[in-house]
């Protein structure tokens, strides 16, 4: 009689997360923190551990490892998922575990002139992508995960699919990007046709979509707007597929452009999104409209930009300037 082996703990975690449609990044992050938690307590099974051990681990992260509040909270969320969704232990005592408080920080914002300087040091697909980060208010991965069918040139809008919180939304397509973007997609169309002739041409699709529409992965409309340069094997299907451009490639390009611009600010790809929101607010856009374009769940998140535009820190002049 064959003995059926129980799946390993981390494998069960993966199964439960995929059942609940968590993103692959969240899955990797939670697996990482659960593994570190178990190793911290000398590989004891989490069922043998409780509130005291969780607090000891979180304290170790804050005091010894000096991680940020958001990182510590991410670790706690991973352990919360482990105990409540995987081990199915209610453990109400976890509700009283002290969570790290995230400090209130204002985002870095570039002036319109500084944005122009940064964009002037980019070209090709990196120029188009950076223009969409600033001109459409996209997050880095929202931009890189765009597919051809998400761009509507007639309505001058972009459909963001599965954004933060797995939410869809519409945002604006800047008029100044339309012509370069259309030229870029024409090149993409040519490359895709050549790949199909070689027996390639598949793009990565989530497994459920790939099963439902078996031929969709070879259609142009499903191709990434910013595809990777080479094919790799899909871990689920085994097919040779193209993923989107790696985020680090775009981050490096923008970092290099900021350095060449000699801007004395620590600007990143996300800074362009902050600048989009701030400049819209300065030019009279309604806060609710900006909230919808950014995809914020709570308007209070969007309100942070009202603090950024207050000239002189609190909107007043220094008494020194009145002398």
UniProtKB/TrEMBL annotation:
The keyword Transmembrane helix does not apply. Residues 7-87 form the Core-binding (CB) domain. Residues 105-318 form the Tyr recombinase domain. One of its GO terms (molecular function) is DNA binding. It comes from the Bacteria. Keywords: DNA integration, DNA recombination, DNA-binding. InterPro entries: CB (IPR044068), DNA_brk_join_enz (IPR011010), Integrase-like_cat_sf (IPR013762), Integrase_catalytic (IPR002104), Integrase_integron-type (IPR011946), Integrase_recombinase_N (IPR010998), Integrase_SAM-like_N (IPR004107), Tyrosine_recombinase_XerCD (IPR050090). It holds the Pfam family Phage_integrase. GO terms for biological process: DNA integration; DNA recombination. NCBIfam families: integrase_gron. Belongs to the 'phage' integrase family. This is Tyrosine recombinase XerD. It comes from Candidatus Thiodiazotropha endolucinida.
